[in-house]
Amino acid sequence: MSIEGKIVVLDPGHGGASKGAVGPTGLEEKTVNLHVALLVKSKLESRGIKVILTRDGDYDVPLDRRVAIAKQVNADIFVSIHHNANAERDPTINRTEIYYPWEGETPSEDLATHLYLAFRRHIGLETLPPLPSTYRVMRENVEPAVLGEASYISNPENEHKLKRKEYLECEASAYAEAIINYLAAGKANLQITPQAKYIEVTGDDIDPVTIEVFIDGKPYSYRYCNGRILVPYPQRRANLTVKVRTKGGNIEVKSCDVPAGKPYPLDIKPCYPNVMIDPLPADPLNLRLARYIKGCLRTTGVAAELTWSSMLDAQTDTYRVDKIFRSSPHIVVMVSHYEPTLVEDGVAGFYYYLNEDGKQLAKLLKDSLVNELNMNDLGLHECSKYPIIQMFGPRAYIVPGVWHPYSKVEDTSYQRQIASIIANGIRKFWSDLVEPTHDNIDS
Ligand SMILES: [Zn+2]
After folding, report:
1. How remote is the CA of residue 6 from the centroid of ligand 1, in Å?
2. 183 CA distance to ligand 1 middle (Å)
3. Model's pTM, two decimal places?
């Protein structure tokens, strides 16, 4: 993701009659803020970023005007630069604080987190985790917008440091590094455009696994093809919200009202499903099989993820459920192996009783293993024991064989065969499910 040509608005707090906080020997916050802003500006400009200051001298600018400047130039980032004070209560306080407007997960929170990490690296004071706030200068502003209080001017020792350019360079380096890291992780710049059959959502650098679409706050179907998110029209005028992360991890959310239209229910299913493979914790054999399945799926363009991928990950139900919720997969397949003492060797399929699609998926996967590997058929069973299997449709739980130290499933090439049969089954299941007929689309 190129950061060149991006527009950053830096906002040195206060100015003119508004001095801001004043240090014990009379150093004024407005002066330090401007110095830091100028240093950040030159660091960013050397990387090809366009920087606009809300003030470049000792004069005050109303808060509304500072916001208006950022919106006028359609800034990619707005950063307000301040220094805190707490002389009355405790002049020894000196720490770093970062504020962002709180509305759930937002780009501002991402940028605030980059700042948090950069301040710790470059200044090393006690640094509070990013704090949500309602400061005027961040409200109704561009996104992301944050406000930094890199240190306390009321602390006598720190006031002394703030008079030295080398120290201000540290603060400026932190700001510049955070801004560059944020931009390098990408901005999606989501655009929502109503087309004849679909509402089309486009953007840059989107990680397809992270797409979430909501109509009036409820999860809604979409199709992702060639970098475009296609959303069917709702049946009545409604609010559409699209939430994505870029491949670099930055979040972006875009909302707007969309008109009602003719729905195309079958046509909007994705060409390729997002699949979540959930190896039952915490067995390395389950994990290995899940990794093979993921590999098989990925080589054919199916976005596959694991609920946990290292024996070091947390593997609690909560962790796995949370992971599934966050990526909203189209299909969830849980895998594990039987304890040798429990049953004879063979393959069993499980489904949640309310999930008809899941039942068919479990049957297809089990039957494929029975037919292609001559596994013993241990049947198809209802199962409500695991929270994962109750969550999303379609989901299935497959137990391909008994584990014991000398069993075939320990053999890598045999496991690869099992994995490729399961992966093929998932693909077949999905194409049977979504293959649209012309009757469905054009009637
Ligand atoms: Zn201030």
Report:
1. 26
2. 25
3. 0.63
